[in-house]
Amino acid sequence: MPPGAAAEAPGRTRTQARWDHPGLRMNVADIAEAVERNAVAVVFVNVLLQQLGLPVPAVPTLLLAGSLASTPSVLAKALAAAVVASVVADWLWYGAGRVFGYRVLAGLCRLSINPASCVTQTEARFVRWGIASLVVAKFIPGFSTVAPPIAGALRMSFTGFLLAAAAGAVLWAGLGLGAGWLLRDAAPDVIALLERNTAVAALFVVLLVVAWFAWKVWQRHRFRRLAAVPHITPAELFAALANEPAPLLLDLRGASMVAETGPIPGAVVAEPDRLELAVRHWPKDRPIVTLCACPEDAGAVQAARHLLDQGFTSVRPLRGGYDAWLAGARPAVR
């Protein structure tokens, strides 16, 4: 059979011929053909699931779909599917944030392996960057999931939200599909290499997953050590507030929660990244109590540890955070 005959054999599709490469197995050609034939549906479902928060990587699918696109029009359809899926997921999260407010953010924070990476810190960055944060959110792991509900909780304009979310989706999906399109001639060689070294490739992926998980576990262990700082109970706090000198309160809740539930009387609201600005005039020997609305009081613990390192002599996080504050009497803070 002359060279190239496989590509011209009757009954063979363009994809099967294109992926007939030494070292490629038939199942790879079948998968490639299935993705090419259903590119729009595959891209839509994959992107939708990922943007809803499921651990389903979408970038490999975008790269594959881009490498299999036969014409620019096919590539455009795949891009449209990715953008629509991304915007739909973002719209759902935006609605959840608008309806349930900070509770959605607290729920997302509880799903984190590392409680120290509290959503409050992400929210502070969102407030600082504004609508531009939605454009770059897709490129920042973790931020793409929490940004839409934060936008909803902060009552961002729905029109502005959709435009920014769509712009970010176009950039993110466009880069993935475009990279696949530019590398479409090299894709069969890459797949062939992976097929010839399946065990090595699988081992490499497993090592990456193990390393990522170990890093997260180490972060959690590090947080546990930091959390050893002494706490103050609600009863102790309320008793201290009735005496002189009353402790100073540092409120580390996110902007959406403060706006929704109102400020704590006498407390100073602070962003985790700008603690020094909030306490710059406070005496170092004055008792300070930090509180947040984070799982395991993560934000309050981090703030207390940071202030102690800065020379403040008495800083304790409130055990139970804002919920504990609400559960007890709330006297006016001096």
Question: Please, could you describe this protein's structure?
Answer:
There is one protein chain. This protein is 63% helix and 4% strand. It is built from 18 helices and four strands. Strands 2-1-3-4 form a four-stranded parallel sheet, with helices on one face. Helix 17 links the parallel strand 3 and strand 4. Helix 6 crosses helix 10 and helix 6 runs antiparallel to helix 11. The longest helix has 29 residues. The N terminus and C terminus are likely disordered.
The tally of helices reads 18
Label the structural class: mainly alpha
Oligomer: single chain
Determine the strand fraction and express it as a percent band. under 5%
Mean pLDDT: 78
In short:
The protein has 18 helices and 4 strands.
Overview features:
63% helix; 4-stranded parallel beta sheet; 4 strands; 334 residues; mainly alpha; elongated; Oxidized Rhodanese, domain 1
Topology diagram in text:
Layout: H1 5-8, H2 14-18, H3 26-37, H4 39-51, H5 59-68, H6 72-100, H7 102-110, H8 119-129, H9 132-136, H10 143-153, H11 158-182, H12 187-196, H13 198-226, H14 234-241, E1 248-251, H15 255-261, E2 268-269, H16 275-279, E3 288-291, H17 298-309, E4 315-317, H18 321-327
Parallel strand pairs: 1-2, 1-3, 3-4
Helix pairs in contact: 4-6, 5-11, 6-10, 6-11, 7-10, 8-10
